[in-house]
Amino acid sequence: MSANQKAGNESQTSTVVMALGNDISTDAIYPGRFMATVLPTETPQYAFADYPEFRAQLKDGRMPANSVIVAGANFGCGSSREQAVSCLRGHDLTIVAKSFGRIFLQNAVNLGLKALACAEIEACAGDTLEITEDSIHNKSTGKRFAIQPLPPTKQAMMAAGGLIAYTRQRLLARHSGV
Amino acid sequence: MGMTVVEKVLARATGQAAAKAGDVLEPAVDVAMSHENAALVLNQFLEIYQGTGLEPRVWDPSRIAIIFDHRVPAESAKTATNQQKTREFAAQQGITRFHDIRGDEGGICHQVLPESGYVLPGYVVVGTDSHTTTHGALGAFALGIGATEMASVWALGTLLNFEVPRTIKVVVTGKLGRHVSPKDLILHLLGKLTSQGANFKVIEFHGETIRNMSTCGRLVLCNMSVEAGATSGIVPSDDETHRYLREEAGVRGELRAVTPDRDAVYDQVVEIDVSTLSPQVACPHAVDNVKPVEAVQGVRVNQIVIGSCTNGRLDDLAAAAGILKGRKIARSVRMLVFPASWKVYREALKRGYLGDLMDAGAVIMNPGCGCCLGIHQGALADGDVALSTTNRNFPGRMGNPKSEVYLCSPEVAASSALAGVIKDPRMGD
Q: CB–CB of B229 and A102 under 8 A?
C-alpha cells in the first residue's frame, strides 16, 4: 500500500496509466488463449496481452503508485472469465469507467478489485486524479466528476473482504445453526 | 401488480409469493454449470473452507454439471492437468452430471444441458460462462457468473445478495423469409439495443414468430442476448418447450408452465416485424455493428466457421448442408464445422448433412468451442477475415489481433463459402 492510499473519505492521488474507449471486452483485458492459466497468482502476466506498450510497462514494473485505467462505457463486457479481474487486481490497478459489464462488475466486487463507475469521467493517460469516496477530481484539467456508488449489498460484500470471506462467514453461521 | 418471468422464477426460488425488480434476494440454484474453468472454481471453493475446520463438500452434487468443451481434446499439458484435477474432484464429490471428453455424451455445455434434460422451465441456472443465458430458451432464468461466485454456489446452493433484474419485453411478429433465420433476428435486435442496451436486464421474448420457432432457434436468441449485456434471455414456456423436453431431451415427470402475468411491468417494450428482415451481419469489431447482408456483399473471406453454442445445432447444420449439397466451396476459403455436441454430430451424420458438407470441402471438427474464442483449432493468419456463426467479434477474439471476424447465420456462411466473399443466400446461383 502506498503512502497516498488512505481509508475512508480521505483522497487518494492517482495517475492515469491508460485511457480506453467503450466496450473494452474481457477478450481485450485477458485474451482467451491464456484461459488455461487460472490462478490469481499467475494471471497478471497476461493482463492486456495484446496491448504491447502497456504490457511492457506492466512487466517492467514502471507503474506509478495508485495506477488507474480510465475507460468508457461497458468496460469488461463479454465473457465471464474471472481472469480478467484477477489479472488487474494482481497489478493493484483501479478501474474508472463510465459503466461496467454486469459480470465483470460482480467479479470485481467478489475479488476486491476497485472498479469505480463514473458516468461523466474525462481523462487522458498521464493525468493526475484525486479520488475520494464519492468523486474524482482530474487535477490535470480541473474538472470534477461524481462517482456512482455501488449498491449497499455489493458494498457489504466488499467490506467483508470479498466473496470468499463473505461465503465463509455464511457457511460457518449455517454450520453453527445461527 | 403482475410479475415478469424472472420475477416469478425468483419468487419461487426464494419461497416467496412475489418478487419485483430491485428486490435483493438469495435464490436457490437448480443447476450450477461449469466447463474447464471448474479448475478455478474448485481452487476458490477449497479456499472458502480454509481455516473453517469443515470438510469441503458441495451443497448438492446432483445439481452441479461440469462439461469439458473449451479445449477438447486438451491443447496443452496445462489444460490436460486442469481437466484431470476437475475429473478427480467430480469423482470425489459424486458429481454425476460430469461430461468428459467422450463421443457418447460430450459437447458444448450450452447444448449438452438442454439435450440432457438438465434444464426445466422455472429453474434458476447459473454457469461460469457468459452464454449461460442460452438456457432461458426453456423458460428458465439462466445467467453467467464468475468462478468465485460459483464456488460460493457450490458451498451454499444459493446466489448471495442477488438483485432481481428489470425486464425488456421483445415482441416479434411476421414470418421469417427464406434463408432468414433466428440468428438474423437476434443480430438485428443487437444492432437496435446496442452492446449495452440490456446490461443488468432480462430480455423476454414474445410474439407469433417466437411461438412458431423451434427450441433450436430460441436457444440462438437467448444465447446472444448476453451480447446486449442481458443477464438472461427468456422465452416463456409453451407447447414447443414441452415437446422439446419430452421428445428430444427425454424428460419425464411434471413440467411447470412459466409465463408472465398479463399485467407484468416491463422496463421497455421493443416490437420487431421480421417479415421483411434481410440476413444480417455483425461487422468487425463489435457485435452491435450490424448491417444487412446487402451492405457487406463482396467482402473477401478466408475462413468460414459454422458451429458454437450459438449455431452448431441440427437446424444450423441442415441449413448449411441444404445450400452446399452437391456444390464446392471456393478454393480460397477454409471451412470448419463444429457440431454443438456428439448427439448433434451423430444425428447430422445419420441424415447425411456431414457427408454433404465434407463433399463440398468443409472440415468436420470434433464438437466443442473450437476457434470461437481463439484457444485452439482454426487459428487465423495476420490479415485473415473470418465469417463465423459464432457470437463475438471483439478485436483478437479468434486469437489473432491482426484478423477480423464477421458474424452471421449458417445460411450466409454457407452461401459465402461457395462464393469466397460474403454473399446473400437469397441470391441463388
A: yes
Counts of helices then strands in chain B (DSSP H, E): 14, 18
CB-CB under 8 Å, B231 with A167: no
Minimal Cα–Cα distance from A94 to chain B, Å?
19
Contact A28 B147 (CB under 8 A): no
CB contacts under 8 A, B 68-127 vs A, are 70-71, 75-76, 78-79, 82, 127
Interface of B with A in 26-65 (CB under 8 A): 36-37, 39-40, 43-44, 47-52, 54
> Which member of A102, A154, A172 has the closest CB to residue B199?
A102
DSSP of B213-278: S-HHHHHHHHHHHGGGT-SEEE----HHHHHIIIIIS---S--------TTB--SEEEEEE-TTPP
Cα dihedral B18, B24, B28, B32 sign: positive
Per residue in B172-183, pLDDT (tens digit) is: 999 999 999 999
The alpha carbon torsion through B182, B185, B191, B193 (nearest 10 deg) reads -100
Range of the domain at A159: 150-178
Across the beta sheet with B31-34, the strand order is: B97-99, B64-67, B31-34, B124-127, B141-144
State the smallest CA–CA distance between residue B49 and chain A in angstroms: 7
Do B324 and B396 reside in the same domain of the chain?
yes
| Buried/exposed B246-281: b ≥16 CB within 10 Å, e otherwise | eebbebeeebeebbbeeebbbeeebebebeebbbbb
Q: Identify whether residues A73 and A156 lie together within a single domain.
A: no
pTM over 0.90: yes
What residues make up the domain containing B109?
5-272
3 state DSSP class of A142: coil
Q: How many domains does chain B have?
A: 2
* Lowest-confidence region among A21-25, A153-157, B91-95, B412-416: A153-157
CATH assignment of the domain containing A86: 3.20.19.10
pLDDT digits (tens, 9 = 90+) for B332-385: 999 999 999 999 999 999 999 999 999 999 999 999 999 999 988 999 999 999
B401 has a chain A CB within 8 A of its CB:
yes
Among the partner residues A27, A167, A171, nearest to B396 by beta-carbon distance:
A27
* Shortest alpha-carbon distance between residue A84 and chain B (Å): 10
